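Reply to thread "Modeling small-molecule complexes from scratch"

Following up on the discussion above, here's a worked example others can learn from. I took a protein sequence and the SMILES for adenosine-5'-diphosphate and predicted the complex. Inputs first:
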Amino acid sequence: MILESNNLEATHDIGRRLGAALIVGDVVALVGPLGAGKTALVRGIAEGAGVPDSREVNSPTFVIVNEYEARPPGRSESPQHGPGPGSAALRLYHIDTYRLRNWTDLDALGFDEMLAQGAALIEWADRVEPLLPEDRFTITLEPIDDTRRRFHCHAGGPRSQALLAALR
Ligand SMILES: Nc1ncnc2c1ncn2[C@@H]1O[C@H](COP(=O)(O)OP(=O)(O)O)[C@@H](O)[C@H]1O
Ligand SMILES: [Mg+2]
């Protein structure tokens, strides 16, 4: 599936829809050149997943992994947020592999444990491909011009199919 974004706000909106559908164990692989909008998309995802300060989401290039609490337990009970697959407690792991030497470094950082507790959003995911589960949601971001982006979305299995459906 291909989605078009004509501006930053449209990218945030796509991210929000995706973020609201995330559950523990999900992997979102982001591929695309510098400035394509990977971090912008993650900001929207964080907002949709219920991260309180999603506007402060920045590229974790220097720390490799940023961890956010999304949807704290109990939120599902509140009247504003109905129950659903997205209502349980969730952590978001925002990973930027740009400075990793190779995929084994991410393995050493405890990637498996991250997936046991939350969802992973990975910038430059092509660099750690051998470590990623087949059932991952891959978004290849293609810059068209200053403000337009094309998102090529691919679901590698049943879980990521559900994420794809959330974007339809
Ligand atoms: N439609 C769009 N979607 C996402 N970013 C956009 C869009 N149009 C312009 N931009 C700009 O492109 C840049 C994307 O930066 P960023 O998200 O950090 O990219 P990356 O993480 O892929 O390097 C930002 O400066 C943003 O304002
Ligand atoms: Mg980035």
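What I'd highlight from this example: Residues 61 and 96 are 5 Å apart (CA to CA). The helical segments are 8-21, 38-49, 103-108, 111-117, 158-166. Questions welcome below.
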